[in-house]
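question for whoever is on the cluster today: can someone run the full assembly for these? six chains, 792 residues total. i dont have access anymore since they changed the login thing
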Amino acid sequence: MSPLNEEQQHQIRDERREQIMSAALKVFARRGIIGTKMSMIAAEAGISHGLLYHYFASKEELFTTLVERAMIASDEAIHSVYELPGTPIDKIRALTLDMLDEGGTDYFLLIHQARTSDGVPEKVVELMKRYSMDKYVKQLQALFREGQNVGELVDGDLDEMISSYLSVLSGLMVLNVQKIGGYQRPRVDVLLRMIAPL
Amino acid sequence: MSPLNEEQQHQIRDERREQIMSAALKVFARRGIIGTKMSMIAAEAGISHGLLYHYFASKEELFTTLVERAMIASDEAIHSVYELPGTPIDKIRALTLDMLDEGGTDYFLLIHQARTSDGVPEKVVELMKRYSMDKYVKQLQALFREGQNVGELVDGDLDEMISSYLSVLSGLMVLNVQKIGGYQRPRVDVLLRMIAPL
Amino acid sequence: MSPLNEEQQHQIRDERREQIMSAALKVFARRGIIGTKMSMIAAEAGISHGLLYHYFASKEELFTTLVERAMIASDEAIHSVYELPGTPIDKIRALTLDMLDEGGTDYFLLIHQARTSDGVPEKVVELMKRYSMDKYVKQLQALFREGQNVGELVDGDLDEMISSYLSVLSGLMVLNVQKIGGYQRPRVDVLLRMIAPL
Amino acid sequence: MSPLNEEQQHQIRDERREQIMSAALKVFARRGIIGTKMSMIAAEAGISHGLLYHYFASKEELFTTLVERAMIASDEAIHSVYELPGTPIDKIRALTLDMLDEGGTDYFLLIHQARTSDGVPEKVVELMKRYSMDKYVKQLQALFREGQNVGELVDGDLDEMISSYLSVLSGLMVLNVQKIGGYQRPRVDVLLRMIAPL
DNA sequence: TATGAATGAGTCTTCATTCAT
DNA sequence: GATGAATGAAGACTCATTCAT
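^ ran it for u. tokens below:
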């Protein structure tokens, strides 16, 4: 029996990589880089810990790779808000829902971990410096400005409004992950009251 | 040198304990129980790590003691809102400011850590189960109800309003600690818009 | 494609075996059994590491096989000195050059590794015990005795002379492999001065 | 009971450090950096492996520290030959004996390991580049030149003579450590024949 | 009471070896 | 026969905890 052909090999490799990254994301996002043991990731992915090292040279590399990916993904997520239908407030509502939904949360949390935990690789620290919330703020300026222009958003300093709103969302996202304590996810309309005229 | 009398001994002991707990709180609140090394606490307290074990049997015990204290303290903090002068919205504003100020944050953060991190002692997990946000909500029902009655707060489900508002504050507190990324602390008036009629 | 007949199969198998042993010799000789990874041998041989195990059951077996071969080969090398033309001193000169030349060094170095490194299989340790330098000494007694008889070598204890000379050569061989530090390979005439009358 | 005073602490620390370095030297010299396990050093020093890390940050650091020390020591050893009594050949004889004696061998072997093994820290590689045999050769030029002048050494290229002689000694030192195989340590007079006129 | 040397369990990482294809 | 994915034992290193002084 001849060995698998190159394409099959490649496919297996790629699938495994995805499987590992997906498992790692889940764990890293919740427990940070220090709190995460490679054995946890291996268990989550259903493979041996040794195999992790066929795909990623180290815990740091795995973490860094995920952070890079997360930055791209969150970038795109924010960006895609412009494609949505409706008025500015509709888009903001959709964005808000999206951020608070379980779905895309992990990437965001990972970035939070990358920003706030110890033991984060130097490279990630660098990435984070260049990738602060300002970036998101800038991406949303056009949307919020239009909202002000059409009277759907309150007047006032644009950047402050955006970053305040994002901060509230960020905080909720961080709380969101843990079902434990009885945090209540506020309804979107309540949150929008902060920025919408009454 | 005459030996200290018993009372003086006691006093020194108590001061040391306070010193250690204060240092430990600062570190645990920011780094969680896993991310905190006993040597960090010792350094923060300006003593040798060996000495810690004269006062606390283990890292777990120290953490647990602090959590118990934090629960009492945050309880009192919430409770004390009723002593403040002014109308309900004034009191809520003051409470909000208090929670977002650097000052009392550590205890709250410690509870957040206790609730969300790994490696938390079983006893603390038990404490947390019995001490969810509902407790705070109950404590604030009277205040918020009065606010609704006098027309300072919007109508609607009382408990949901309180826990939503607390969740937003909680999220912001968690973000608050890290100066890093460019999180913006929203102005109190903006936050109050969520619960106050225009 | 008709399957190869049995003889062809055999031949391929033997060639592969040779190819692997040749690669392994090169690596083991320089890095010892511990410092050598199976993947290095596979890379040197241009095959996958998995394939090694079709030909040799383990690293130990591969190493042991090579050592056995090396012992035979060095035996023959020493022996063949008698076939060379010229007087005893001519033969010794040729032997010296041969040992110090890059060429046949690997087998000798492998034996050195087998003798001096850790992690050497028990079986090899046994082999080495029975295969000390005495063996070489015995093989060279006739040659050196003749050298003394014809006055080309200094008088004195024969065995001591041989083993001293071989020790010097052995030491130089060990140094020889590494081009790094600036070891100087002494000229043969200088070395011969140790045993030749002036 | 009060803790030890500072001086006592220091003394204990220094003694332990020496004890560890001495143990490590013994093991590294024979087995190289890869073949040496920290547990071997700990065992040799009679302490736990954990304690090693109170004194040296890593295996690499320990190895590097030893190599630096060895370079200084071997430097001094060579240098001290000039203090010895007697004619040049007497001094060379003494140096030879010294190098082949068990005593100072470990440092030399460590340098040999540093020069030839894998897994050597980058810093050591750098050290070695700047510290080749040329250095020893230079230090001995005056001695050997004088030997030629007084007719105790053969004429001919000075540097080549020195480095050839040192290479022979080096090779013997490397063999010397292992009692195993039956290597014969040549008598000094035999070795001196390489460089002395009949 | 106070210090820091000492220990060892637990985690990351490497690599010989196995095995499905 | 050939490949490389997969496993797990073993070694480097960290850190909570103990203990002599």
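summary bc i know u wont read the tokens: The radius of gyration of chain D is 20 Å. Residues 1-4, 8, 37-39, 49-50, 52-53, 57-59 of chain D lie near DNA strand F (CB under 10 Å from a C1').
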